[in-house]
Each structure stands twice: as structure tokens, then as C-alpha cells.
Design a protein that fits this description.
The protein is α/β, with parallel strands linked by helices. It has 23 helices and 14 strands.
Amino acid sequence: MKDGFAFLYPPPASLRCGGGSLDIRSVCYPLEIFKKFGFLFDHFGVRNRSRGLQVVFQERPSRPAPRGPGPGDEGYAIECGPDRVVLSADSARGQFYALSTLLQVLARFSDAGRMPAFSLRDAPLIAFRGAYLAGEAALAGAAALQRLLLQLALLRFNHMALPAATRDDARSLAALAQRMGMVVLLLDPDPRSIASLAAAGKTGDSFPAPPAFLPGAAAESAGTAEGWLDFFLEHCRATHAAGARTAVWSDLFMERPEWVRRIPGDALVLNRAAPSGRGDPFRTAVLPFREHHVRQVLCPGLCDRGRFIPDARAALERIAAAMDAVAANKLAGVMLAAAAGEGSRCLPAGSAMVRFQAACLLWSGRPPGPDAFGCWALGRDEPDLFRMFSFLAQAEHRLPHAHGHYFFEDPMLAPFSRQGDAREIVAHFRKAAQYLRKREVAAGEMAGFFDFVARLYAVIADKVQLSSRLAALLETADGGAAVGLQAQGLRQAVMELKGLFAELRGGAPLPAGLKEFDMLGERFAQLGRAAADPVARDALLSALRNNVPLNAAEALPRDP
């Protein structure tokens, strides 16, 4: 891509700069387009004028409709002439993509008042590009969910899966998603749950009608597995008659491979057991469906359960492997899951960079430009944002464990279970905390996220340092008091992190996450009491000297 257009996301398939430039101080769009995509014009801060540079929309010659959304009906082109810009697309979805790309360019060059003339051709690499927002959707309010929906649509995701708990908002979201070129699915962690998926074909000049959201199978009908299968097949028939498609998790069919041959040809199987694309587990999970020509989507996770921040390297490797597997095995596509498993601690803002990079790979197969991330996440060029996320992607690369392990490990058992040099771990996290505190991003969710991470790293550094010096401190005359003060300070810091964690998760954090914070806080409280109690202090010191883990229930004082 030409350097002057490196801000575009996702990177287009081809872009050629022409000679000269165009006056964009006044741009005129067809009224029906301005009304239809008013939310998009608002997002980019672009207005419609009565006269000026003309933007013309053209339909490409009709072609045979592919089975399901894919490169054949999502492609578009932009051509700049002396006094007009022509946008052509294969479908309404392609029209949305063409307009959003043009508005990115106009917003970028708005201050200059002129933009370079250019010619652009674009189409996706992967047909089915989805995002499963299990935790984020459950925590976000209606307005926040609509903003997230638009952000995903601008990344060219054409499917968004929501937990069934959002069923009440699903109809309004599906109507909005329809204008953005997206289909909404309702899914549950329970593999027996069923979602209705909108039909892929277009009707006239509109997107497919929103799916009919039918109740999922919360339990096996009549208490038998065969009863559930009968329900599933009946559901498939009903949704097919309504012009929709059924999506279902692969889990039950993997346990009962004899059922695979009974899956209707227009159903879609979501496979979270085989995102790696390698080895016998992948073949076991995928081949039975392939043999019966069942359409599959691979669902790699962005974040592991034990982390607040994704391991960006590992996540992108999983996504790249899933893309390779989709191409090699002719599968339907890829759907990104926010977490690798239910109950993840991963913060929604922490996945922003990984999701952005993954979406660009799914669309174009190429990484985005650095300044494109700030334009997508904050609506403006924000170099520090990209640098900070890039730093987080490298921050723990050489450590034996992830940050979640060091944070939640027992401070009194850590000396016996930890791998690596404690001094190196302390220095690593302390330097990382200092780096994040020196950088600034605009107030909002991103600023809150980085504040949480900086505090988290500082607490880990203090915690590891205390654990590594615990025996030496207790052996000194005033060591008990010093340990007590540090334990009290760390307990307070943990409780503050708990509050920030709850706030960043929309005030509704996972109960398991809260319990872990509380258990860690109680452990620091016990350590403080042990340091102040002569008998408990001697028991703890003896255990540390003899390299014997201490059972808190046996020797440490508990709450009065």
C-alpha cells in the first residue's frame, strides 16, 4: 500500500495513486445513501453538501450468487475522477465497505481540504469472518454494544455472535447489524444450544432479514440425547423454511460422530476444539464434518483464561493456523472468541489490538499499518496507543509464567513453586509498570485499562520481592513489623485492583474473578497476622528455612 494510505483498515487488496488531487471541502452524496448510512457519516464526522465533489454509487453486473457470504459478493472498488468519485460494489454489504473506506480517506484529509486521487480494488480473503463476544456483550450496555458493533463492522467482520442472555436486545441489534453488513447469532456455552443464522443470499438491494431468534435447547428434550437430536433437526427444518440457517457448536457431534451424517447441508457447525489446524486432535475434530460436507467455522480464542491481557503472539499464531486450516480444508471461515474458555479474566480493552490485527489478516492476509490502529480504536492517529499495546505483546515473552500466575500465586508458597530468578522477575515487572505510567492516552476505557495494567505489574513486582525476601526479613529483629506493613499495603493494593477490575468489566465482573481477589487479599491478611504473632512467625520461618510449604490452616492465625 502507498505510504500515504497506510492509515486504512483493513489494508485493501490493491491501491494505486493517480496524478493530482481532489477538492474535498464540499462532497455531495446521494440522499438515499446519506440517510441509509447516517450513523457512518456521524462516526467519521463527514457531512453531506448540496453541491461539490460528486460521489456516485454503481452496481456491478450481476454474477452467480455464491453459497454464503464470500469474496464474490463482498468486493468493491473506488475510482477517483476529476470531478467525481465512483463507488461500485457487488452487494449492499460491499456498498457499506466501499463507503466506510471512502469516509476513512475523507476524514484523514479533511484538515488539508484535498485528497490524492486514487484507484482501489478490494475483496476478502476469508468468506466467514466472525467475532464471538461472550463476556463483552454480557457486560456492555445497549449503547456500548452498538459502538462495538460498528467497530467490528468497520473491520469487515460479517458475523457477530452474542450470548443468549442478550436475547432481549437481539432484534434491534440485528436490524442495525443488517445495515452494517453483519449477521447476528445467539449462542450459549452449552453445546446443546442452537442459534438461528440469517440466510446468506441477498434480497434485492437489502441485507438478509434478521434471524428469527428461537429459544435454545437448554436441556435435552424428553431427557434423552436422541430427543435433543430430534429437536435439533426440527429446528433446522423450521429455520430453513424461514429462509435462515442454524448454527450449532460441534461438541455433542464430536462425542457422537454417528450424528454428523444427519446434520442438514445448510447448517453451520462452530468448532472450538480444533483452532490450531494441526495434528491428530484437529483431524479428529474436523474430518468427520468434512466427510459429510458440513460447513464448519473454526473458533480460536484471543485470550487464555488465566490472563488479564492476551498473549498477542500466541493468539495471532492460533488465528493464522486457523486461517491456514480453513484454506487447506475448504472450511467456511473463522470466528474469533474473546476468550479461550468461559470464565476468562481477560479484560475487553486488552483484546483490542489482537482483534484488530486478526481482522486485518482475515480480510487481506496482511498486517495493518501502525497508525491505522489508533484511527480505528480512538478515531484519530494515536501513536502511543500502538506502542503501548506492542509493548504489552512483548512484556512477558521471556518469563516462565504469565502475569496471572505471579499475581494469584500464594505469597507464602511462592518460594517453593516459582521458576526463574526472583530478582529478574521483579525488575521486569517494575520496569514495565514505569514504562506504562510514562505513556499517556486519552481518558476513557483505554486509559483505565492501561492504569490497571500498570498497577497490576507494580503489585506483582512488590509481591514477588516480598516472597523472595520473606525468610530474610523474618530473621531480623524488626522483620515482623516490616513484613506486616508490606502485607497490609499489598492487601490494600489487591482490593483496589479488584475495584478497577470490576469497573473495567462494566460493574459486573465474574464471581470467580472476585473470589480470587478476595482469597489473595485474605492470604496477605494472614501473612500480616503471622508476622505479628510469635508462634505463627516461628512456624513460618521454620518452614521457609527447611524449604517446606506451610499449610495456612495448620499454623497461621485466621480472622478473629
